[in-house]
Amino acid sequence: MNIAMTIDGALRNPTTDGVIPLGGTLYHALTAQHSLYLLSDELDYLRTQNWLRLNSLTRHMRVIQPRRPNDWRTATQLRLDAIGYLTGTGTKVDLIIEPDPAITAELLGLGHPVATLSLPHFAKPQWRPDYTQSPRPWDALVDEVETQAQAYAADPRRTAEPL
Fold first, then answer.
1. How far is the C-alpha of 102 from the C-alpha of 87, rounded, in Å?
2. Which of 148, 121, 145, 6 is CA-nearest to residue 63?
3. Long-range contacts for 61-64 (Cβ within 8 Å, ≥24 apart)?
4. Taking a C-beta distance cutoff of 8 angstroms, is the pair 74, 81 a contact?
5. Tens-digit pLDDT profile for residues 8-64
6. What is the pLDDT of residues 108-126, one digit of tens each?
7. How many angstroms separate the first and last alpha carbons of the chain?
8. C-alpha pair distances (Å), 155 with each of 110, 148, 149, 150
9. pTM attached to this predicted model
């Protein structure tokens, strides 16, 4: 499987710059059996590579980083750009591991399978160090999952007779 994992919030604690224990364990488990691509919001490639090396996180396939300054782009836009870049190279992404439920909802809406990594210290959006919006991401995620479930249930191709 080709799996994409967000660095900040899933692998790196943006507050302390340390490895999130669960994220580190998940990283090592995934790289043992799958192709893992890391998604970074950091423009400085050398800083990201140094952090990964210092924390013995070197078994992934590659790091996808913004290709231009991200002053005007939101975290959602950065993530969608990264996934778009990865799929544009011909890589089929089988799963995305994302800590932000608002971004998860966007990715689901685009047809990507996503696992939302929810850690207790980030359980409420206002607890996140990058919090800037009203607490609505979980509602958006629930709405998107329900919309897709309804569309799947109503899809006539599921019950159509073979030709």
1. 21
2. 6
3. 61/35, 61/36, 61/37, 62/37, 62/38, 63/7, 63/37, 63/38, 63/39, 64/4, 64/37, 64/38, 64/39, 64/40
4. no
5. 999 998 888 899 999 999 999 999 999 999 999 888 889 999 999 999 999 999 999
6. 999 999 999 987 665 566 6
7. 32
8. 17, 10, 10, 9
9. 0.72
- Find, among 61, 63, 64, the residue nearest to 80 by Cα: 64
Kindly give, in sequence order, each residue whose CB lies less than 8 Å from that of residue 68, ignoring residues fewer than 6 positions away: 43
Strands 114-116 and 35-39: unpaired
The two structure tokens encoding residue 53: 């090396």
Looking at residue 28, its amino acid is: H
Phi, psi angle pair for 105, to nearest 5°: -60, -45
- DSSP designation for 15: T
